[in-house]
Amino acid sequence: MAVTLIPTGSAVVTPRRNKPSRDRHRRGAARWVVLALVTLAAIAMLVPFAFMLLNAFKSPTDYSSGGPLSWPTEFYTKGLRTYWTTVNFPLKLWNSALIAGSVAVLGVVVSLLNAYALGIGRVRGRLWIVGLFLLANMLPQEALIYPLYYVAKEIGLYNTRLSVIIIFTVIQSAFGTYLLASVLSTFPRSLLEAASLDGAGKWTVLWRVVFPNLRPTLAVLLIFFFIWTWNEFLIPLVMLIDNQTQTIPVALASLQGDRLMDAPTTNAGALISLVPAIIFFLIFQRTLARGITAGAEK
Amino acid sequence: MAVSETVAAPYPAATPTQPPPGRGRRGRNAAYWLYLLPGAVLFILVIGAPLVGTGYLSLTKWSGVGDPTWVGLDNYQQLLHDEVFWASFRNTVAMLIAMVVAPTLLGLVLASVLFDVIGRRFRPRTAAALRAAFYLPQVLPVVVAGIVWGWILRPDGAFNSLLDAVGLGALRHDWLGDPGTALPSVMAVMIWVQIGYPVVVFMAALQRVDPELYEAAEVDGANWVHRFRAITLPQIRPETFVVALTCTIAALKVFGPIFALTRGGPENATNVPSYFAYYTFFKKLQVGYGSAISTVLTLIIVVVAVVFIWMQARSERRDRGF
Known about the structure:
The complex is a heterodimer. Helix content of chain A is 74%, strand content 0%. The longest helix of chain A is centred in the C-terminal third of the chain and has 35 residues, at 263-297. Chain A is mostly helical. Chain A contains 13 helices and no strands. Chain A folds into two domains: 29-76, no CATH class; 90-260 and 268-297, MetI-like fold (Orthogonal Bundle), CATH 1.10.3720.10. Chain B is mainly alpha-helical. Chain B has a domain at 91-142 and 174-296: MetI-like (MetI-like fold). Chain B is built from 16 helices and two strands. Chain B has helices spanning 4-7, 25-30, 33-57, 74-80, 83-121, 124-139, 142-152, 158-165, 179-194, 196-207, 211-219, 224-235, 237-253, 256-261, 273-282, 287-320, and strands at residues 60-61, 69-70. Chain B has a two-stranded antiparallel ribbon. In chain B, a hairpin with a 7-residue loop joins strand 1 and strand 2 (69-70). Chains A and B meet through helix 1, helix 2, helix 5, helix 6 and helix 7 of A and helix 1, helix 3, helix 5, helix 6 and helix 7 of B.
């Protein structure tokens, strides 16, 4: 939900130039009014971020005397450092990265194997199977959580990162299977037949023919699995209960309402929690734009 | 999430485009089942079995320790008379408005304005920069957004200070603490969270509309409103379906923002089925009752999804009909 497959790269908006009509549009005040209104709305969207930045570097005394809107009198970083050390932020970062990274890789592998059987193998009943995967992806996690929690406790996987990795590998690959199966159902048959005439088995065809051709789509899927898993909340909240295993969102949420979390610390915590998300967004933006074009041309 | 369907996978799975090769088909295909094996085993262990387990537990009374006691449909009967359960579904309707109706309508207008007016009459980069501003909240972990908003809307938070600063101090309020304003406040936050998604999807959708349609309409003297109704809306209907479906499912399942903003309070004014189930499972330790809530929610989601997909298929068939 949080991320879409559509890139926000600047390369996207490329309207066709039409000289005469463009000159005509350049006149008129209405377009400036529209621009002003939309810009105002866009600025309003950014106000909460500005509030957060403003208060993340403010001392508690400064905050209580000047309030949330005042300019900080000093560049105060103790809130940031308090949060960093109290929650052991580097460890949380590692937990989030380990979980999201493992899920991304494993989820793509499982999706690819499933989709190979469904999209290229065209096994019987594949439409029902694909539909089942699609529905599974839409299920509320509450419908799975208690049995998962109970069984994890019974077999000693409770409060381990492995439990969350396994669960999300399956949940994400349910979506991946649905997506890749439809991409692969249009895979050029001639390529497959040429390979099997050369004596290649199914395993070889998968890795030598299908995988290289699908690489851009798989890259997009990998990135989405990573970001979706990074942002997940309910299952990590239930499964990961101590400082050693928690992820970034769970760590922030479990300190909410804590005496330690005064306004500057809350804002500092939120700020460093969203920095990784913004960094991925900037890094992945280009890959996403490329991957989607490549995927769509198939 | 299923947006990718329209982007990366333009061909729906339901319509295989090539006939399967006839020669030795059955024997060749049987081997492919092996590739489905790991995925199927994992699927059954992590999704299938727990789903059945929750369904079974919904027919029992259990605290999570010892053996569940079979009670038949008692939990469901109790649900029918549970005020909190009904309140949580009434609040789901509010979530549907805040996460589906408002973002889709606003998104249609914004995307169309950004693409058709700002993208074409100013530089496309301007439109891209504005779009990024609308999209930014979508990038954050939603819980982080919830915590920041929770602070902004506190009695001593930034929003009340802002009201003071612009001379509206009389409106100061405990936005999330008053049962009367908590739900509208949560709805406003959810619109803020969701709006970027339809904007980005619809703008991408508009890329594939033939620009000549717009140019021809302009030559004929059609203004923006005419073009919006006659070209934009019909052309991007497939994307509108996908956005409506994914947002509806997300609204029915919403948990993180409620957890971070209000924990369902005050007085259940913002409780939703998902949080209600979580609370019943892990705070009240009524596993059977929590399972019944989850099962009802699951059934609703499945029905909604199937109806949506059926409607989409029907509308596509109608389009191809002539």
